[in-house]
Design brief:
The complex is a heterodimer of chains A (about 170) and B (about 150). Chain A has about 170 residues and is an alpha+beta fold. Chain A contains 3 helices and 6 strands. Classes of the chains: A alpha+beta (about 170), B alpha+beta (about 150).
């Protein structure tokens, strides 16, 4: 086995140093890539949290309003059925509720007599009627509501369909 | 590195989620309502105004039953074709439309492009059905994360 000369030892030492430096450089690159990824991720997360916070404030009443819609439906039905003083009283209660819900951002989706829109309406029935326009809403079975730009509940509608496909 | 989302491509409804801070978060559909939920109905409709996918497609199904495709997952991996206006669509093409819609809504929700996806298949799916699901996932130019 040949003896190691001082020059060979120095060369080996140098090679080890080069190898170590290469390893460290790779590690640095990996960490830098990871850092950049985390930075981008955090930036996206920050933007999303900001947006989410705005949405939470804007739609704070959403769940409550959605739960009050069946109550409003019942009051609407009662107003349609009750006559005289009782009807008047229920109408006043209903109007007050609607006023409060409107102030919280609730808007009714106009549907009757309009063209059917699948983004805001839910077609549950179709009728054939010569005097009405094809693809238009003939009757609203349940009112639809939106909160700002979000659909809280689509309007359930009956649509006129005289020839072919109303929508297709 | 872009976000990877997970999609449960269901027979009736589909759902999407992503990981944030080590926990999964649901991605809502753009038309989801407080009343109807945030899912993506697995429904595709061909209308005179174009193709509708998800909630709007479901809402017009009564008026347009011949051109509204539902429950296509049941036909995945078979030779079944949906014929609409003289054109044949394979089940994976219809599923791809659902996936594209989910992708678009997820990108809008997350504010970034999504290039990778994990799609669920039932444990009982055979190789054909799994392959059809993968093909559906490949169509909208996504990269599959493995099988």
């Amino acid at each position: 086995m040949p003896e190691k000369t001082p020059t060979a030892e120095a060369e080996m030492g140098q090679a080890a140093e080069v190898g170590e430096a290469e390893g460290l450089r790779r590690e640095k690159e990996e960490l830098l890539t990871k850092l950049k990824y985390l930075q981008a991720e955090f930036e996206n997360y920050r933007k999303r949290v900001e947006r989410d916070a705005e949405i939470v404030v804007k739609f704070a009443h959403e769940a409550l309003l959605a739960r009050l819609l069946p109550v409003l439906d019942e009051l609407d039905a009662a107003v349609g059925t009750l006559k005289d003083e009782a009807g008047k009283g229920v109408r006043m209660v209903r109007d007050n509720l609607v006023k409060a819900m409107r102030e919280a951002g609730l808007q009714e989706i106009p549907a009757l007599g309009r063209p059917f829109d699948p983004y805001t309406m839910d077609a549950v029935q179709q009728v054939s009627e010569k005097d009405s326009k094809d693809g238009f809403v003939k009757e609203v079975l349940r009112k639809g509501y939106r909160l700002h730009d979000r659909i809280l509940r689509p309007a359930q509608v009956v649509v006129v369909r005289n020839q072919g496909d109303a929508n297709g | 590195m872009a976000k990877i989302i997970g999609i449960d491509l269901g027979t009736t409804n589909s759902e999407a989620a992503y990981m944030e801070g080590g926990a999964p978060k649901i991605i809502p559909s753009a038309e989801g309502s407080a009343y109807g939920g945030k899912m993506f109905p697995s429904v595709v409709a061909f209308t005179k105004d174009g193709i509708l996918v998800g909630e709007p497609a479901k809402r017009q199904a009564v008026l347009n039953p011949d051109k509204t495709v539902m429950q296509i997952k049941r036909k995945m991996g078979t030779d079944y074709k949906v014929r609409v206006e003289g054109k044949d669509y394979a089940p994976q093409e219809i599923s791809a439309m659902v996936l594209r819609k989910i992708k678009a809504d997820a990108e809008a929700f997350l504010g970034q492009k999504i290039s990778q996806v994990v799609i669920t298949v039932p444990a009982y799916f055979n190789d054909n059905q799994r392959q059809a699901t993968k093909d559906a996932g490949r169509s909208p130019a996504w990269r599959s994360c493995g099988s």
